[in-house]
Specification:
The chain is of the alpha+beta class. The protein has one domain. The chain contains two helices and three strands. It has a three-stranded antiparallel β-sheet with strand order 1-3-2, with no helix packed on it. It is globular and about 45 Å long.
Length: 97
């Protein structure tokens, strides 16, 4: 939502989750899945912007090949299928903070 953009919450979330994973000392990788929607998907908000540059600056890269499909309810609709792409960060190749 536009009201919440640009306040640093996303940066803090990714920074803290990465720091926590590193502090445990037993994980080389962290991952998340992002929703994939075409630019013409009517459910995509008109003011939506790509987050790929943000994720890349945080050390994540898209993992080509594997995807996941999940179903969840959308406003005024029953469960709808969604395609999600995997993004990975290799902590061994990242400088320590």
């Amino acid at each position: 939502m536009p009201t919440y953009r640009g306040q640093g919450t996303g940066h803090l979330f990714f920074d803290y989750r990465g720091q926590h994973a590193r502090s445990l000392g037993r994980f080389r990788w962290t991952a998340f899945c992002s929703l994939e929607r075409s630019g013409t998907d009517p459910r995509k908000p008109a003011d939506a912007r790509s987050q790929e540059a943000f994720w890349t600056r945080r050390g994540y890269a898209p993992e080509p090949g594997p995807t996941m499909r999940l179903r969840w309810n959308e406003a005024e609709r029953t469960a709808v299928g969604h395609k999600l792409a995997f993004w990975l960060c290799d902590w061994e190749s990242m400088p320590s903070s």
